[in-house]
Amino acid sequence: MKLTDVEARMQKGIEATQQNFNTVRTGRASTALLDRVMVEYYGSPTPLKSLANVTTPDSTTIMIQPYDRGSLNIISRAISESDVGLTPNNDGISIRLNIPPLTSDRRKELVKLVAKLAEEGKVGVRNVRRDAIDSVRKQEKSKEISEDESKNLQEQIDKITDKFIKKMDQILAEKEKEISTV
Q: Taking the model in full, what pTM does it have?
């Protein structure tokens, strides 16, 4: 396993965590809140963004305009049943989601959720580290590389891991600050 592969896999972990962060409500309207909403459309789960135009006309509203008006009710139901925690208002043409201001208790819950998501991201980075170190040890055992090369590679992998864990902590701090800001 090459060090560039290790970095690329860890970077994917960071990106996945950031995408998860984007789906957490911060009191401002964001179309990313609906990224995980799947709609049962003609018998198959379909991402909401494939069925409708999702926009934010102002900072407290998300507007959903389906490409097919017949899908309004199933989209509305999918949003109600999702973990978004918003009530859809269906006017027959579009669906509006009003984003209420967050209470201090809800902000604390969201900070905990974000911390949990960041920890999952860190576990992913550590799993990449474990796989890379196992690969290096196997190479050493099969005499493909020397003991010194093995130690050197393991140290480099640890440095890369530390860098990505710091980056994860940094994006966590930014998201916590965003959630906590009234």
A: 0.69
Can you read off the two tokens belonging to residue 79? Answer: 């949003």
- Identify the CATH assignment for 3-21+103-180 out of 1.10.132.20, 3.40.50.720, 2.102.10.10, 3.30.750.200: 1.10.132.20
C-alpha 176/C-alpha 50 separation (Å) is 30
pLDDT in tens, the chain (182 residues): 688 899 999 999 999 998 888 777 666 778 888 888 889 988 899 998 899 999 988 888 899 999 988 889 899 999 888 877 788 998 888 999 888 877 888 888 888 989 999 999 999 999 999 999 999 999 989 989 898 999 999 999 999 999 999 999 999 999 888 888 76
d(CA 65, CA 68): 9
